[in-house]
Design a protein that fits this description.
By secondary structure, this protein is mostly helical. The protein has one domain. 79% of the residues lie in helices and 0% in strands. It has 6 helices and no strands. Helix 3 packs antiparallel against helix 4 and helix 4 packs parallel to helix 6. It is globular, with a radius of gyration of 15 Å.
Length: 140
């Protein structure tokens, strides 16, 4: 039996605690990582809920993605580190790009009535991604 996928799912589940416990993390870099873990897990759960007909719960999950991304962004800024020299900024940029792509795919698959909420979240995540990338590439 292959345990690697099972362990990966368990790690994501454990790392993606609720946002209140993530906010309690004293290390800003780790807080941003946990917030992005939470955003990815919330999006996966929202897609599953949407597929099973739980539309309200799915839209709540999408709004939770926004909150988690906002927490990740503010945590990175609170770290006080130079974006050009911080591996956490680069990791966040990559993960935000993937998250934005997944949200756009979800919006494309969703019903027309449900798309505005998902597209609004996708646009927000895309803006945060662009801001993060701009900070990484910016010279002083």
């Amino acid at each position: 039996m292959n345990w690697i996928p099972i362990l990966a799912v368990l790690a994501l589940t454990c790392a993606a605690a609720d946002l209140d416990s993530i906010k309690a993390e004293p290390d800003a870099d780790k807080r941003s990582e946990h917030a992005l873990d939470h955003a990815e897990t919330a999006l996966s759960k929202a897609r599953d809920d949407y597929s099973s007909g739980e539309y309200k719960r799915a839209m709540q999950g999408v709004s939770e993605v926004s909150a988690a991304v906002e927490l990740a962004q503010s945590s990175l800024q609170a770290s006080g580190k130079s974006p050009r020299r911080s591996k956490y900024y680069k990791r966040a940029e990559l993960r935000l790009r993937t998250l934005s792509r997944r949200l756009n795919d979800f919006a494309r698959d969703a019903a027309v009535d449900d798309r505005p909420i998902i597209e609004k979240t996708a646009a927000f995540v895309s803006r945060v991604h662009d801001d993060t990338l701009e900070q990484i590439l910016e010279k002083k």
